[in-house]
What does this fold into?
Amino acid sequence: MPSVPTAGARCMTERPPRRSKTCRSRNSRKKVVCSVTGLTLHQKALLTRKWNRMESATVYELGRRMFESIFTENPHYLAYLDLKGEPNWRNHINFKIHVQRFVTAMSEAMRRLRDPSTSYDVLRDFGASYAVYPKRVSAVYFERLANALNQTATQLQEGDHQGIEMPVSASFSSFSTPAKTAIHSRGSLTGVDSIREHGDCLGQLLSLIWDSKAEHHGPNDVCPITAEAWTVLSAFLANQIKYGYEMERVIRTELSKLGLDGSGGMKRGALSLQRPTQFA
It folds into this structure.
């Protein structure tokens, strides 16, 4: 008579139901995003590393190219620096000082990228400098500033990025060469054919990896990771500069109502000369 399996034996023999595979991507883990800049920790580290490799002359070149592209495409923006109708505005002292102020503010912001809230003042002070000139700055100008900064910085640093990757690709393609040379010099050892085969496979694997990367990122293309990081950072910088300008405008307007100028002194003509009151 066949024995009837007990409840304990049945639990031991029956397999647990298979769990369904998740449809979520393994890379969909929540990234920690800075609440101030919108950058991830990886993007901050990437930009900081690239910025630290830039020389001071390259940093100034970044600012110069950025403002040149803005004013070349939109000459009427020159009025914001009191350079409207100036034919040689590139060599004008107003333009050079403005570029230097921006470079100084941006360098300080990059130095404080780990704690970006401490860079508010320096960025807003630069934005406030636009209020010195009478022409009111359009909000579109600050959007153009963000786009120009993103494009110029990406182009400048992408050249440096490609220069670093070129030697790496060369080392990948020649990875199996030393292995072959060493194998031929020790031909009496056992397992030579196996080692040679593994060396060839590794070299082919590395070359395939590099070729697949090259299909999506050509020698003249912009690194998408770098471009995305600069897009986010440029928006943060431009917004703080814009905020500084708008706040300075409000302050100057209120001071004007009180009969004061921007430096805290009395406006000329604010006090009218009147006869002293005569008492009986």
